[in-house]
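Request from the bench team (R.T.):
"We need a structural guess for the complex before ordering more 2-acetamido-2-deoxy-beta-D-glucopyranose. Sequence and SMILES attached. Just send the tokens back."

Command: build protein-2-acetamido-2-deoxy-beta-D-glucopyranose structure.
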Amino acid sequence: MAASFWTQANALLRKNLIFQKRNRKTSIRIIVYPIILCVLLVLIQSLINNELHKSKYKCGCTCVDKNGNGSCETVCGIQYSTLDQVDSCSVPSPFEWPVLLQVPRPEYRAVQNSFDTFAGLPEKSCRDSESCPATVLFTGGNESLANSLAANLFTNVASSNLSDYLSAFSELIPGTDTVSGDTQFIDPAFIYGRPIYTNQPQCISNSNREFSFKIDTVTMQEDLECVRGLPLWRRSSSDVNDELFKGYRKGNAEMMINEVMSAYDFLETDDRNFHVNVWYNSTYQNTSVWDTTPGLLRVLRSINIVSNAYLQFLKGSGVKVLFEFTKEMPKIATQLSFDFSSLLGPLFFKWVIELLLPVILTYLVYEKQHKLKIMMKMHGLEDGAYWAISYAYFLLLSTAYVVFFMVFGSLIGLKFFKLNDYSIQFVFYFTYVNLQIVLAFLATTFFSDVKTAEAIAYIYIFGTGFVGGYLLPSFIQDTSFPKNWLIVMELLPAFSLYRGLYELSQYSFSGDYMGTHGMQWTDLSDHLNGMKDVLIIIVAEWLILLPFAYYIDRTASRGNISMKGLFSVLQRFLTKKSISTQRSESGKVFIEMEKPDVIREREVVEHSLLESRTSHAVICDNLKKVYSGKDGNKDKFAVKGVSIALQSGECFGLLGPNGAGKTSLINMMIGLVKPTSGNTFVQGLNIQTEKDKVYSSMGVCPQNDMLWEMLTGREHLMFYGRLKNLKGEALMQAVAESLRSVNLFHGGIADKFVGKYSGGMKRRLSVAISLIGDPKVVYMDEPSTGLDPASRNNLWNVVKQAKQNRAIILTTHSMEEAEVLCDRLGIIVDGSLQCIGNPKELKARFGGYYVLTMATSTNEEHEVEVLVNKLSPNAKKIYHVSGTQKFELPKQEVRIADVFLAVKDAKSKFSVQAWALSDTTMEDVFIKVAKEAGSI
Ligand SMILES: *[C@@H]1O[C@H](CO)[C@@H](O)[C@H](O)[C@H]1NC(C)=O
Ligand SMILES: *[C@@H]1O[C@H](CO)[C@@H](O)[C@H](O)[C@H]1NC(C)=O
Ligand SMILES: *[C@@H]1O[C@H](CO)[C@@H](O)[C@H](O)[C@H]1NC(C)=O
Ligand SMILES: *[C@@H]1O[C@H](CO)[C@@H](O)[C@H](O)[C@H]1NC(C)=O
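Reply to R.T.: structure attached below.
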């Protein structure tokens, strides 16, 4: 009875677990890599935290003698801080800052130049004395009205009292050429030591002054410098644009930089409507790479002065809106936080997760390389069970791995794991490892060597890591990069993994920075979040590739085993037609004279095929195999129509010189190779269509031992025993018996790794495997090669014992073995059966003579010949070298007694050094048959 799915699954699972346990190096590597990576990230992170927590980024403090008694007290606050420190200070009452205009630096202010001619700009020489005016361009629908508005932009203020500098600045139109910061807790303009400009229609030479201001308790000094505000009329807003554009800092020394303070378009403004467009230069905002918040715009004062200009136009010079200061809302102290591990994470974590790919691939390719999968199949393992268990096994391994990774990462404190929603992370990793397993199955078809597979897998992992890590983030951040192209890139699983990790890292980074959480399920609807696409891609690829991988695997294992992957599958599709057309021709080619015994065997086969219930264990019905010639070569006829019928309890020996077609024939009989025509029936079951049923009662001992180096002999037998549906006590007994029969039971050999076995021990184990579980048909391909005489005898006994209730088909090069073991022999030469029968018959038929060997001195050679001719007139000399001669004496002509007498007689006449008379051996028969067939 065939083993059920669950029995097979159980066998396979147990074998896998043992294999995993033994494969300690890989297991340790798998566990250690993520640990090392996580620890490394944590170390780097703590270095960075250490740096961030240094005083450079901590709110500035100083020692203040508050009570005036010499003992000082530490006070912290923005007034003691640098710009870097301000972010972390607590600011219960924010400071009030005057509102400033953004003024171009003196050396860049617009002047006349030789390339562009813009009316009204000052001479270039003003740059040397740093006295260039700050230009304001304006235009509008009504020029006279625009002119009068522009004239009101800057007004002379009589010397103001600077001790109340905020209210003074509200009239003085202050400006600065420093860049703005990202908060207004502290204004960089008052810290960088650049002067504060007051914009006036005219500057008197001695109008530069100083003023002091206080931040909390600290008093500071600042220069106040006059700059002339110069409004210039332009005809249209496109003229203004053009001039602004051409004045832009070009980074080219020869071109003039002509910066303008601001520009206004008064549009259709009249005395009832005020419409204005304001140009400002936002390039002035200073945002660093890591900074996600934009710098503040210095645009408020521009709006204030133009509003005042309109008010004055309407109501006279006395009316003004005074804009004294801006200040931010209060804030608590914060700690600058920068989660570096989140940013480095994607690349590292990608490698960690992909580390399983080579592991799985190695495992699968190992079984393919050592033909273990076919071996398992031939002992009854079904494809479905193999897939289900291997898949489930790898999935379990992968899931445990990623869960371990997540838990460890969280425990060690990596924000990447802690901040993002665990269920999202799990779903993402889980779907990905599923896809990864399918990829491994798929990739297995392309490799036939573990080393290559492993190397290519690592190249893929690291290659896509670097390429993805380099390209993807910039493509993702570049909003002009087409989203569809990103999706195309993400079709490569390594990139989709990277993208997913990247999104998680972005969310955990900003979550950490803002003090909130990372990615939540609701974030999936965020249109910038690529996670949803990635999940869809992964699941879709899995759904498509899984059946595809299964199909390819089945096709590859069903057909020719030496086939290499997908290409051959496709090739087979393409060449199928041409083979079938050749089939009809090939019938004619093989018409050859067949020997009577071969013809009789063919008749037996044909006869038993007609019977409904056949007593034959194996029937080969006219098997033919043609390998179609490549590159214009002729087709090769490997097997030319062989018919054999075997009874149960019979051992059949298949002999033949190398290259005679034995292996092709056996491969067709065990269903590894599809015959070009003809068929094989095992126990009445067609091997082509009912392979799985046939395999459950079949045993194979292949020519090359197909064994797992990491398992012991006993484990091998247990595994195959389970596949053959042996359970519990019966299994133990069968295994012990089997080990004993092949002499592997004693001395603990059975529990040693097969990798440590000698060649002979492996052979014996292979034979034991082929016999376990009482198969009805057993194929043995040269079972005794490499065995010492004692082991060989032992093995022969095993086979003799075994053949009693099953059919055994055996190939061998040892004629002795064939004679001892086989009930019938068939000799195949050049693809067709030359003779078939039991050893004695064959010997009688092809032998029929004795061989007389005699060694004398060279002088007496002639006398020996005379003697032999007297004995038997038809004797033939077959061998002759310096005194030693061999003769064939036909049996019907001589009696052994006569030979003895003749030799005795001869000895008395001359000296005979040695002599021998032997019957024909199987070897003689074999050589003769091979020679005859060759001469045809
Ligand atoms: C332009 O504005 C001035 C002052 O308000 C007004 O007197 C004049 O009519 C306006 N011109 C046009 C063409 O609207
Ligand atoms: C400026 O104003 C302060 C008070 O606001 C006053 O004490 C001081 O005398 C004034 N200085 C001048 C020069 O007016
Ligand atoms: C705007 O500001 C940037 C940065 O300082 C400067 O390079 C550029 O020339 C300015 N553009 C104009 C039109 O003034
Ligand atoms: C921007 O600010 C940094 C300090 O935060 C400063 O070093 C840098 O020079 C500024 N960039 C410009 C263009 O002023």
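Two things stood out. The pocket of 2-acetamido-2-deoxy-beta-D-glucopyranose (ligand 3) is lined by residues 104, 244, 247-249, 257, 259-260, 281, 283-284 (CB under 6 Å). Confidence is low (pLDDT under 50) at residues 287-292, 559-570, 576-591.
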